[in-house]
Design brief:
This protein has 279 residues and is of the alpha/beta class. It has one domain: Purple Acid Phosphatase, chain A, domain 2 (4-Layer Sandwich). Helix content is 28%, strand content 26%. A seven-stranded mixed β-sheet has the order 4-5-6-7-9-8-10, with no helix packed on it. A six-stranded mixed β-sheet has the order 3-2-1-11-12-13. Helix 2 links the parallel strand 1 and strand 2. It is globular and about 45 Å long.
């Protein structure tokens, strides 16, 4: 009987360990600025993502501007959904081209309203934010964000909104986004943005934009299929600034993550790794 009990305990421990390990491993594909029917970008970016052997298990996170010139539901159905609607796990935030449709009516018909928090695993959460808001709506979102920061405990955070606080691209650094950046700086491990139509991996920065090992790493992933914008300069000593269509792949294992920027030809344009930011 004792031997049976010991074997049962060992088996249960192995099952629990396997479940914890499986729960800890997650793959995220991140893109922004897609859905331009006049270009082939969305098709080839989608094909590149679906060439990954594990794409059906991956989370697709979109950093806004899902269709051009205005993301109406009809435009989304025509220019976006045929390429990205097949992903089972999808999260998105609205960009300005989404918001231009009556405050995001088409966007909301596909995705729940933001802000909201989504659990990816036991350790990781995604905070989805709307960078188009002003006035009372923006104030409500900031109160929500402050509440999330206060009770995040030891969760690892990916924060997502459309307009980047830091960018070497055409639009550049956006001081209006300081209200979103400052609460998450040093709290979120990763920030994902679009708007500028290039890829950029900005090294960890603090609330004021100074390099800091305790800061938040941000990515501009606006190269998801729309017209590409050239980067103006490398403003933040970014590891890679690329003006090619592609997608960002983030592999999460426990509290560690590794990223690769992958072109539509399947090439790795950038790669790196980091650990969950806890404060």
């Amino acid at each position: 009987m004792r031997r049976l009990c010991i074997l049962l305990v060992v088996c249960l421990w192995r099952v629990a360990a396997a479940e914890t390990s499986a729960d800890a491993r997650i793959t995220v594909f991140a893109i922004g600025d897609t859905g331009d029917c006049s270009l082939d970008g969305s098709r080839v970016v989608s094909a590149a993502m679906r060439a990954q052997p594990d794409w059906q298990q991956a989370w697709l996170i979109e950093a806004g501007d899902l269709a051009y010139p205005t993301a109406t539901r009809a435009r989304l159905d025509q220019c976006h959904e045929p390429y990205f609607g097949m992903f089972m796990h999808r999260l998105a935030v609205p960009g300005n081209h989404d918001f231009n449709d009556h405050g995001g009516r088409g966007f909301r018909s596909l995705f729940p309203a933001v802000p909201r928090a989504v659990k990816l695993s036991g350790a990781w959460r995604v905070w989805l934010l709307d960078s188009n808001l002003t006035g009372k709506a923006a104030a409500r979102q900031l109160r929500w964000l402050d509440g999330q920061v206060a009770r995040r405990d030891d969760a690892c955070i990916i924060a997502v909104w459309h307009h980047p606080r830091w960018s070497s691209g055409w639009h550049g650094d956006d001081e209006a986004m300081a209200s979103l950046w400052q609460p998450v700086a040093g709290v979120a491990s990763i920030a994902l943005n679009g708007h500028d139509h290039h890829y950029e991996a900005v090294p960890p920065l603090d609330a004021t934009g100074q390099p800091s090992s305790g800061g938040t790493r941000s990515f501009v992933v606006g190269n998801g299929g729309a017209t590409l914008y050239p980067a103006v300069s490398n403003r933040h000593n970014s590891k890679t600034v690329s003006g090619r269509w592609g997608f960002l792949r983030i592999d999460i294992d426990g509290r560690h993550y590794a990223w690769r920027e992958i072109s539509t030809a399947g090439e790795t344009l950038d790669a790196g790794e980091g650990d969950c930011q806890l404060r």
